[in-house]
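ok trying this again, last paste got cut off
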Amino acid sequence: MPDWLNLAESLTASPALYAVLIVVSLLDSFLPLIPSEPVVILAGVAGATGQTNIMLVIAATTVGAFLGDLVPYSIGRLMGERVLKRLPVGTKRRKAYDWFERELESRGGFVLVSTRFIPVGRYLATGTAGVVRYPLRSFMLYVAISTSTWSAYTALSGYLGGVFFQENSLLAVAVGVGLAFAVTGAVEFLRYMRRRKNPVKPDDVVSGHH
């Protein structure tokens, strides 16, 4: 597996960086071990010093993430029946699936947009949307919103870190990562507050993944 962060760092002054951003954000949409956030934040930091164009960084990341989210959705649609056979009624994974199905039916937009900021939830939501045959047009609309928002906040986290800490790129990346975690934490807090008002507990979602 390539070292994506070092690869991106070596290409900060090259147009090839945008291709790397597309690939890494695409793969991260369905492969948990691909570190897209640090790579995008690094590109954002480079944008603050003029080495990259921040708008192109956001655009490339959005394109990659959007295409990437279509992968688990498409797999879910193609293998829906097989997936359900492997989720016996009463198991934790089946409960997680049932919960996601209900949430997608009642508030699909919120689920698809908010889970984009949560790595584990990201894969489960897009894959489940395919299994339950969530309307493609609606899926693409919400995924366009979620990926562009996620790309902008991730890249701008790095950009702001670079603006305020131009003399120390390592510190700029660290600040960018901190801002990204802060936003993700805020999303998680909002989800927690919603759970308290919802009698159905989605705790099995994460444990079902493992």
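PB: full thing came through this time. Residues 91 and 122 are 21 Å apart (CA to CA).
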